[in-house]
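Record type: ASSEMBLY
Status: queued
Input:
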Amino acid sequence: MTANPTDLALSGLTKSFGGTLAVDNVTLRISAGEMVALLGPSGCGKTTTLRMVAGLVQPTSGDVLIDGYRVTHIPVHRRNIGMLFQNYALFPHLTVAQNVAFGLQMRRVSRAEVASRVTTALRLVQLDPFAERLPSALSGGQQQRVALARAIVIEPSLLLLDEPLGALDKSLREAMQGEIRAIQKRLGITAVMVTHDQEEAMTMADRIVVMRGGVLEQVGTPEEVYSHPANRFVAGFLGASNFLRGSALGREGGEVVMRLDGGGLARVRAGAGPGGPLIAIRPEAVRLQPASAEAPVENGIPGTVEQVRYRGQSTHIHLRLDDGESFLAYLSNGDEAVPRQGFRPGDRMLASWSSASATMIADA
Amino acid sequence: MRGRLSGLGGFVTYTMAVLILLFVLAPLVVVVALSFSEAAFAVFPPVGFTFSWYETVLNDPEFQHSFLVSTLLALAAALTAFALGMPAAYALDRWRVPGGGAIEAMLLSPLILPILITGLALLQFMSMMRMMEASVNLFIGHVLITLPYLIRTITASLKQVDRSLEEAALTLGASPFTVFWRVTVPQILPGIAAGCLFAFMISFDDFPISFWLADVETMPLPIYLHSLMERVFDPSVAATSSLMIVTGVLAVLALEKLVGLRKAMGV
Ligand SMILES: Nc1ncnc2c1ncn2[C@@H]1O[C@H](COP(=O)(O)OP(=O)(O)OP(=O)(O)O)[C@@H](O)[C@H]1O
Ligand SMILES: [Mg+2]
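Status: finished
Output:
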């Protein structure tokens, strides 16, 4: 069971439902064997995009190209697509084996070959002992694995996943993330996944596509998108971020010097991020020390502790800056060098960071 | 049964249920009891016990004829109503049919209009069209009044179908037609069965349509029963009625055996 590597391209893909644009001019190229996650808040058009790729929704304009062929007007059942649904969508009146066999029967594969391919697929998802059960006699995780087997047994050109793990609890979800990813890599199937869980997107995907209001906000590897978010929305959507507003004063040795509106100076490596009036700093890059009465420092800003929350691996400290903005610091609880004690609401603290951990981004 | 009620609420509920059941069943029990009476007149309470009225009825060629007419008519009407109602319900539920709402209202209208009037209108129409064949006329009339039951139950089942199952089947390479037969139909089968049962019973039981459209050569059971009551006063009328009840019960049991009645009724 190996897929012929297939690449996928979306070209100006647009869908409007009675005047409202659900997906707005999406252009995207996905290479063979790649796994891409569509990530974004509810209603941003992820599902609609995925369903246009599948052929379940007809685009208003634009095209879907599989291996360079325009498939926009080819009906779903001739697109050779494997799809996973959030509610598994197993046929309740068919056994596990019959469910997996369905797609092969549609392809008029011989009886003997169906049997052997079904067994192989079920073994791949470790469900061969359950072949004769009905789906209702399986747990959610098992059901989704049957759905996975059913989708890949037809050797699809594309694997499409719409929040496939949304109905599972956290630990099972993490296990399944690993399992799906491993099978996708092993078979080399080009895959597009929809999720609104940023952790899921980061752990599973080669590239993340962040969407908002039907528009692509940023496309990049998890690392790129996390470390160099294109704008405030992306930075805020993928993990937490602190934003400080400022204006550039000039360049100094490969760094841009900015005057922060809240007072003080900040240095940001030139070329880190797309540029703009905001500096984004991840909470885990922030260090805290008791504030002294000295003049404002570089790459630092004073604030008052509002809340201290112990979160297991880390402690989250919520600061209120003097201009009223909030500022968040995550202190690792495993790091002995970091003082964790002695933060109490009302304490004056200086939050500081290194130039390398700050990014200049657009305010959008 | 998902759980038992308890306490005062439970007591009241169960008592009410039993009382309603008694109220519904009591007249039927009287009829059935009378059918075994040895008395030559239908008087309650029955006297003695005999099967002779059944013997009389079952050997009566008029009864045999009427029973056959009613059974065939009910089967034909139910199956035809299914053949017409299935595509209609599917189209109305799944496609954007222009004027779909009006069409649906029209198809369901026999449920609302007084059936006696529907029958009279049919009779007038048919005599205008010079349609003289009673069996055909009865068939048309019965399809008309049973169709709404099939459309109703099938539409209700279609609305409950998990659409992602159909979509999954499409992605797996099944054509829309195959999806319908292999995925949609198995899911709505209980609804179809329930609809057919309703249709069968409505037709088998029908008086107001048959009243206008039947003739002496094609006389459904309820009409025959009515004419019997005008001229006969012995318990054979009760025996005939009991046989109708038995047919209904058998139809229900058959459905229970085939698809499970609870499922079919959506409980
Ligand atoms: N069939 C439809 N008819 C009308 N509007 C629709 C339809 N499907 C989606 N929409 C609208 O299009 C927009 C995008 O919907 P979509 O389902 O693609 O969002 P999503 O990103 O998948 O959201 P979620 O995370 O909640 O699943 C929403 O505003 C939605 O209301
Ligand atoms: Mg969605």
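Annotation: Chain A touches chain B at residues 54-56, 75-83, 85, 87, 89-93, 102-103, 106-107, 147, 150-151, 154, 160 (CB under 8 Å).
Annotation: The two ends of chain A are 45 Å apart (CA to CA).
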